[in-house]
Write a structure and sequence with these properties.
about 140 residues; about 50% helix; about 20% strand; alpha+beta
């Protein structure tokens, strides 16, 4: 029986060490990219639903309430947690839902990167994503009172 001498057996150890050294950062990057992509899809859908809910409401106050619920449902469907409030910009201003009015809904969210919050403090490290959707109030509907 021959004893290992010199560098016999070191190749396996080096392979495992380098694999771990390279795979852990790759896994982290993929995890972060998938979280950002999921949140981007969620805010895009949330802004679309918020714009539609707002533009089809009877009054602006009812529209804000409907849009808030639509955003919460759209984000929940995609697994995004947190309180997000949509913002609206109307042309012509103000947002009173007059027939033919252009309504732009915008939803913004900051994606917290995994494990980074524990190092830098919660809420400091993140990637902002924004969804924007333009909707028009039906021009053939009755004007609000």
């Amino acid at each position: 029986m021959r004893r290992p001498s010199g560098e016999d057996g070191n190749a396996m150890l080096e392979f495992v060490y380098l694999s771990l050294l390279l795979l852990i950062p790759l896994f982290y990057v993929l995890l972060a990219v998938f979280q950002v992509q999921g949140a981007a899809f969620a805010v895009t859908e949330a802004s679309r639903q918020a714009g539609r809910a707002f533009a089809r409401a009877d009054t602006a106050d009812d529209g804000y309430a409907r849009a808030q619920k639509a955003v919460a449902l759209a984000l929940e469907d995609q697994g995004v947690s947190g309180q997000v409030t949509p913002t609206f910009a109307c042309d012509p201003s103000p947002c009173d839902l007059t027939p033919g009015q252009r309504v732009e809904a915008r939803v913004s969210y900051t994606v917290s990167l995994p494990f980074v919050g524990s190092v830098f403090g919660k809420g400091r490290a993140g990637i902002p994503v924004t969804g924007r959707h333009v909707e028009y109030v039906d021009r053939f509907r009755q004007a609000p009172p």
